[in-house]
């Protein structure tokens, strides 16, 4: 590896040959490595901790996240670089120089790829910060499921990229490997297309957030409170306490009615009264109903409507409509119950009866001959 008799060392007026020159080269290589080691210690124990503390309160959160990921890596990179430069400064023999330089460079490049991957692995929170600063303002602070998945996907991509780069540096046919992995992935995706569809639908639901846990939603014929949201399914608790597990693919393709986003709920029905009700009774009834509704604190006063809308087969039809100022379904049901009871009291006070479907039968008597 080294030819002592041919080694020379010159530094200004100093000229050495043989073992003395080899020793001088070794001291120089050690000095280079030692200098880089000192720089790495300075960065690790003094400069980088102070920089992290200084960047912590800044509004640019991506800088602290990147620094947290690469802080353990930067000193190691400096130290490895010092070792590399120290080793290539040694007086390699002519026969070994090409192989030594190529081998050292290959090892150095591989270690740099590993360190870069380690830094990106630790900087995975950057991807969520990038999405959080986007125009759609995703609620990533409370959506821990989406944050966890984004970081895992990012780290898997980092591992795959590092592995492919290392294989390429070692001379393996990366193109054929990538093609094979693509075919394998296609085979798995075809075999598990339903699961993949549910997973991607779950990701889209988490990104778009048409609803969240605790929201009251209606999806197709299912209506209730969202109890859990995963990448495969959405769990909805109905009023009868039944738990519906809906595949995300069917949820994302259906029309979603999010009742929690309402600021109020509509209370509307048609009140049927009997045909023997007189006009004064009808007018008094409608006036009392309107007064009762406007007097309730839960009812939006300007939305109260009580109007005679038509004449049915068995009843005189009165439209009763108003908005109740609540978005919660259980509270709305309680208020609706109270309003219905008050309507019954108003009907009784006015002496008006509820109509119900009825049939009148007329029997014609023929004169006996």
Structure, briefly:
By secondary structure, the chain is of the alpha+beta class. The chain is 55% helix and 16% strand.
Topology:
Elements: E1 8-11, E2 14-17, H1 19-55, H2 62-70, H3 73-88, H4 94-122, H5 125-132, H6 144-169, H7 174-191, H8 193-208, E3 216-219, E4 222-229, E5 233-238, E6 243-247, H9 248-253, E7 256-258, E8 265-273, H10 279-294, E9 305-311, E10 316-324, H11 329-349
Antiparallel strand pairs: 1-2, 3-4, 3-7, 4-5, 5-6, 8-10, 9-10
Helix pairs in contact: 1-3, 2-4, 3-4, 4-6, 10-11
**Estimated radius of gyration:** 40 Å
Summing up helix and strand content along with how strands pair, one would put the structural category as alpha+beta
* Backbone shape: rod-shaped
The N- to C-terminal Cα distance equals 144 Å
Give helix and strand order, one letter per element, not per position.
EEHHHHHHHHEEEEHEEHEEH
**Care to count the β-strands?**
10
Please state the average pLDDT score.
81
The helicity comes to: 40-55%
**Tally of alpha and pi helices:** 11
Beta-strand percentage? 15-25%
Task: Report the biggest beta sheet as strand number plus sense, adding barrel if it closes.
Answer: 5 strands, antiparallel
Q: Strands of the largest sheet, in order across it? A: 6-5-4-3-7
Low-confidence stretches: 134-138
